[in-house]
Amino acid sequence: xxxxxxxxxxxxxxxxxxxxxxxxxxxxxxxxxxxxxxxxxxxxxxxxxxxxxxxxxxxxxxxxxxxxxxxxxxxxxxxxxxxxxxxxxxxxxxxxxxxxxxxxxxxxxxxxxxxxxxxxxxxxxxxxxxxxxxxxxxxxxxxxxxxxxxxxxxxxxxxxxxxxxxxxxxxxxxxxxxxxxxxxxxxxxxxxxxxxxxxxxxxxxxxxxxxxxxxxxxxxxxxxxxxxxxxxxxxxxxxxxxxxxxxxxxxxxxxxxxxxxxxxxxxxxxxxxxxxxxxxxxxxxxxxxxxxxxxxxxxxxxxxxxxxxxxxxxxxxxxxxxxxxxxxxxxxxxxxxxxxxxxxxxxxxxxxxxxxxxxxxxxxxxxxxxxxxxxxxx
Length: 378
Fold this sequence. Notes:
The chain is of the alpha+beta class. It is built from twelve helices and 14 strands. The chain is 26% helix and 20% strand.
C-alpha cells in the first residue's frame, strides 16, 4: 500500500456495500500475522473483494486501486475527516469506478423492480439504498457494475434509463455529469431522500461533495449535521429551493431547516409529474413558463393545481412555490425574502370521477398580502 496523488495517478476505485471487511491495520499487518489469523482474514468476503477488484483493475490496465475499507486508517480522526472531505474528489478523479452489487447473482443487471428478490430495498439491489453510493454513482466519469461473482453487467451510460427509474436522477446527469445542468439544491437533495446511512451524521457528510461543501466531522451531532450542510450550501449559493415549505401538512417558518434529505423526496422531476402522482412543489424559470402544474391529491375526482402570474414577482428570475390544498381553497406560499410585489392567480384543473370526461379549468384571482416569509393568497 502506497500513498499517491489522485490528480496525476491513473487508478480505479471501488464502490460497494460494507460487510465482513478487512481494515487498514489488518491489511498492512497481514504478513506479520500468525497463519491461523491470516487465513481467517483471507476467508472474509471483504478480502476477496479486494483481490477481485485488484485483478479487474490489472486486467483493465491500471496499476493502482483505491477501496475505502483498507485505504483509510479510521483509527485516526484527522485522516478520517480528510478522507470524507476528499471522497467526492477521489471518485471524480478516478478513471473508472467498480460498483460491486453483492446481492445480484444473475449475469445481467436487474431490468425491473423485484420486491421478492430485494424485499428490504424497495425492489432493487441494496447498493442503491445507501447514502454514500449516491456520490459514488455521480462523481466518476465511468461506472462499471459487477455482480456477486465479479462478472460485468453494464455501465452507467448504457444503463442510464434503468438507473433513472431506480434513483430519480435525470438520464443526462447520469450520462454526462452534473456540470452545466440547471439543477436546484432541492432536486439534488431529493436523490438522497430514500437512502440510508449507518450513522445519522453521514446523511449530511455523504452529500458534501455534491455541493462542493467542506465541514468538520462531528459524530454525535446527529440531525444537526444535515442542518449545518444546508447552512454551508446557503453561504455558497443563491439557490434557496431548500428553504421552501417542503411539507404542506407541517407548518414551518422560512427560517426552519430540514433535518433529513427525505424532507425533499418530492422535488425530483416535479415538472414531469404524471396524473395521479403526489407532487407538492416545483421550481421553474418564469421567463420561459407562465403556468406550473402540480398534482396535490389522489383519488376521485383527481385535482391538479397550477399557478399563473401576470409578471415576475421577485428580483430573482427563479422562484420556488409551495402549495397546500385545504378543501376547495389553496394557500400559495413563496419563500423568498426579496419580494417586490405583484399578483397571483390560482387555478384548478378539475378532473371528473369519470376519467373519460374532459377536465374543467377554473381560474380565480386571489387577493395577495405581503408577509415576512412571502406572499399568501386568501
